[in-house]
Amino acid sequence: MTTPTRTLTGPRGVPLLGVLPSMAQDALGFFERTASEHGGVALLDFGLKKLVLITEPDAIKHVLQDNHRNYVRGRSVDSARLLLGNGLALNNGESWLRQRRLMQPAFHRQRVARFADLIVARAEETAQSWGRAAAGNQPVDVADDMMKLTLRIVVEAMFSEDVRDRLDVLGEAFDVAQHFIYWHGRTPLAPPLRVPTPANRRFLRARRVLDAIVYDLIRERRERPERQRSAEAHDLLDMLLASRDADTGEGMTDTQVRDEVMTIFFAGHETTMTLLTWVWYVLATLPEIESDLLAELRVVLGGRAPSLEDVQRLEYTDRILSETLRLYSPTWMYARESVEDDVVCGYPIARGTSLLISPYVAHRDRRWWPEPTRFDPDRFLPDRSAGRHRFAYLPFGAGPHLCIGRDLALMEARLIVALLAQRFGLERVSDHRPQMMPQVTLRPKGGMPMFVRER
Ligand code: HEM
Q1: pLDDT tens digits for range 143-163
Q2: Third-level CATH fold of 85-331+395-454
Q3: Which of the listed residues 403, 417, 442 should we mutate to test ligand 1's pocket, taking the one with most ligand atoms within 8 A of CB?
Q4: How many angstroms does the Cα of residue 106 sit away from the middle of ligand 1?
Q5: Residue 36: left (phi > 0), alpha (psi -120 to 50), or beta?
Q6: Which conformational region is residue 50 in: left (phi greater than 0), alpha (psi within -120 to 50 degrees), or beta?
Q7: Domain 1-76+332-374: assigned CATH number
Q8: pLDDT per residue as tens digits for the range 243-284
Q9: Is the full-model pTM beyond 0.90?
Q10: CATH 3.30.43.20 domain residues, the chain
């Protein structure tokens, strides 16, 4: 470890609460101002607690890759543990590495390719409901529709059609549990779960419903081991149950499988839904981008539905997704905690310090992104990407914890955009200007009401 050469500085806050009110009022604007006034490694004083905001690509590289063992998911994710247990997105160290190795094969690009037909079939159902909305001139909430669609896809990728009859129950329970853990994470004096407050009881009820469904399915599948050995029948649950540690030959316990299932639901649908929702907003707002997209769809698809074979050829669609992920990065912030003292870009980081990493700010850094607020998919053309800092773009994280579902999410988004954009144009409901709402993901405040027009 080198010796610190710089001193951390940060914005001044109010007595007792520090910068908490500024953060609560407008977290995104506050992060941007802090980075521009105090640099890419800045101190955030929250009164009782001090955090460090990391937005400089070199510092991000150090934390997420070069010295990643020193930066773990710490106490800040304790609320999420109430639902996700020790699933991959919260796990650390040896236990994380073992689970990651067990799960990685299930998420390999060739393996997730098998979900292309499922994605297209479910997107067709959204197309039918948009067709009805267009005929009736009724606005739809695009955010809500994308939520239902991505939840359904991730649930069926996991369980095939085994939960078809319980999809609504599962969706509702998941929603309650998810809201609770978000609220719990922001409420320092939240009563422990054993105190029977209405909120705790609602959460525990939802968690029981989810556990019952997931454990039932695990039990049923364990009774049919031949299913996991057959090459065709594999959904994600089969793959998790079939995976074996290369050294010990051991698989996962039921609790581990349960935690990973919940984690994949949690990490896998609201993120993808947020990305898609902003894509529809961009297309409704920027006609020249929409018309370039339609030109690509005409050449690649010529009016037919997309399939797996088309995914690699949808290059402009992919650049639209990349640019949407830059400006509306669904994961706008994530947290780490330092295990030992360290020095990051010359700044001292004491052990036990909480760090916030902000892709939102890194994605607007003028050094790598000229005219940062302009939506320009062609920034991602190879010649224009040359020389860009690799850690200036991290919608899927970076280093060993890079999102395991990245290939699945990108395939899913390409197929859904190609299928729906080819048939429908969206128009904003005139008085609605969606604002980014930095919560679990960067969802639009008040949803995304839009009129659908058949092309
Ligand atoms: C547009 C969609 C998505 C975005 C923007 C996204 C973003 C991210 C980010 C930023 C991380 C790193 C977090 C960290 O370092 O702490 C991550 C990790 C993760 N993501 Fe995603 N994700 C998406 C889709 C998915 C999907 C579809 C799945 C699964 C089906 C998934 C499962 C996971 C898991 C399990 C991790 C933890 C990986 C680990 O720590 O080893 N994600 N994701």
Answers
A1: 999 999 999 999 999 998 888
A2: Cytochrome p450 (1.10.630)
A3: 403
A4: 14
A5: alpha
A6: beta
A7: 3.30.43.20
A8: 998 888 999 999 999 999 999 999 998 999 999 999 999 999
A9: yes
A10: 1-76+332-374
